[in-house]
Amino acid sequence: MVVEQVDPTRGTTSKRRKPAATVFVLIGAVCGVAWGAAFRAYMSEIVGGASRVDWYGTFVAIIGAGAITGALLGLAEYVRRTGGRRHWRWLAVAPLTFAVLPMTMPGALVALFTQGLGGGAVAVALTAIAGGFAVAGRGPLWGRITCGVLALAVIGGIVATVPAIGGLRLALDQPRGAWVAILAASCPVVLCLASSIPFRRVEGVAAASVDAGSSAA
């Protein structure tokens, strides 16, 4: 789609091609798949030989959740760059896919409420949203600081699982342990940065009005 822009200083009209939403969604989905595969590698490493890879748990609950989250955040970036839309900031809850899809596995809900298993997926999703809000540059400063501290605490906890669960095999003074620790830290940090998109200021013709309306809401 080609849109016209008027330069008020020169009184001229220029044309530029408006990016297609499909491109942003596909790029987001690909990034989400890569993220899910990387996070699954971290999970496999800390468990070691006991790790089990299956079609549903790996490709739907983790990699599939990454693809959906990435696609939604890609859509959010498209909307943000093209002036925003009404209620578009609800895309900020996209990371909750990481908490929802694992719960569709057989027995997952029972295990969550009886044994606490699966709570890590919920923590990752909420950390992404909190961290995204913290680095977005919008909203009350105290709120962003609070969310940032909470997100960093969870990320630190994720890194701590490397030697805590992996034992001497993944000690942080060993090359393999250091590698897995970097993987454990970088995955949630990247997810937080991506999750900041729906919280950021909009660009385009309607940026001022959309930001004003969302602030009022």
Account of the protein in words:
The protein is mainly alpha-helical and about 220 residues long. Helix content is about 65%, strand content about 5%. The protein has nine helices and two strands, in the order ββααααααααα. It has helices spanning about 20-45, 55-60, 65-80, 95-100, 110-115, 120-135, 140-165, 175-195, 205-215; strands at about 1-5, 10-15. Strands 1-2 form a two-stranded antiparallel ribbon. A hairpin with a 4-residue loop joins strand 1 (about 1-5) and strand 2. Helix 6 packs across helix 8. The longest helix is centred in the first third of the chain and has 27 residues, at about 20-45. The chain is globular and about 55 Å long. The two termini are about 30 Å apart. Residues about 1-5 have low confidence and may be disordered.
Topology overview:
Elements: E1 2-7, E2 12-17, H1 21-47, H2 55-60, H3 63-81, H4 97-100, H5 108-115, H6 119-135, H7 141-166, H8 175-195, H9 207-216
Antiparallel strand pairs: 1-2
Helix pairs in contact: 1-3, 1-8, 6-7, 6-8, 7-8
